[in-house]
Amino acid sequence: MLVHGGGMSHETDQTTSTPGTIWVGVDGSSGSHAAVRYAAHAAQALDLGVHLLHVIPIDMAMSPMFPLVPEDMEPVAHRLLAEASQRAAEIVPADRVTSSLHHGQRTRSLVEASGRARLLVLGRARRSTVERLLTGSVATGVAARSDGCVVVVPADWQAPDEQLHVVVGVKDPEHCADLALRAVRLAADRGGRVTFVHVWDLPWQYDDQSSSLDREWTERARAAVDAGLQEVLALHRDVPVQLRVLRGQAARVLQDQAATADLLLLARRGHLLPRGHLGGTARALLREGTCPVEVVPPADASSDGGDLVVEEGGQETAPGRGAPLPV
């Protein structure tokens, strides 16, 4: 049978979180442990707090022989939060770690949390029948609908020993500004560098025709992306940046480019559906990424008037400004 507790999520216990706090979805899995560590390290670097959230789902399929209600699961939920709090307190001061327990639909509850968080962190572990994971449809559903940035962290994540390396997947200049601004701010705050990657391709049926145009299309795409980045990068000239324009299958190329990175940033494009839509490339990277993958939602109002979509071969171009980015 299904256990129901109402249509909207509600809190049963909470220690107060403050604005600018990094929130973490906690479920006791190996991915969740990595998410807590990631959030704590980020909070320590940015002088923020960490808020831990566990959601007891109200829509679990259960046997009629065991008619549990969500409240019966609270002791386990409190234990999971206490253990996560101890992990976080090993990295940040304990007085900067808060927690809350909710009853509700997990995806909806986490989407609501994203609107209150500076960043929402979810863990991703290898699929298992033993662990209950904040992954798959939950993480993807949250990233597709969130009001704020969501990062999904693999279970084997380790804090970087060197300067932060951020890789940014740039799909078109319309989203360059928001992504570039977040990337360079992260790098500036943590003494890192940024690599912008734009990927283009055509269906295989057109290989013969496009082979002679590879260089021209790559150069036009580079000029367009470079122009879209210049205004933001001018505000952070101290951050080392690089731009790579490559041909290939987008998810595969981005996976390769981010293989040694500390963070991969992707944009969630606006969509006619409520709360947006997550494309196949982002879904694949959230599922298979070897480093943390952060999805940045579209801005409420775009200040960029550019209308070029460089993935379509650079049919329209924008004039560049400033010095071109290094290859």
Automatic annotation (TrEMBL):
Record's superkingdom? Bacteria
Entries under InterPro entries matching the protein: Rossmann-like_a/b/a_fold, Universal_stress_UspA, UspA
Q: Name the segments for region: Disordered.
A: 1-20, 298-327
Q: What range(s) does the UspA domain occupy? A: 21-154, 165-297
Which family does the record claim for this protein? Answer: Belongs to the universal stress protein A family.
Can you say what this protein is called? Universal stress protein family protein
The organism named in the record is Nocardioides aurantiacus
Upper taxonomic classification of the species? Bacteria, Bacillati, Actinomycetota, Actinomycetes, Propionibacteriales
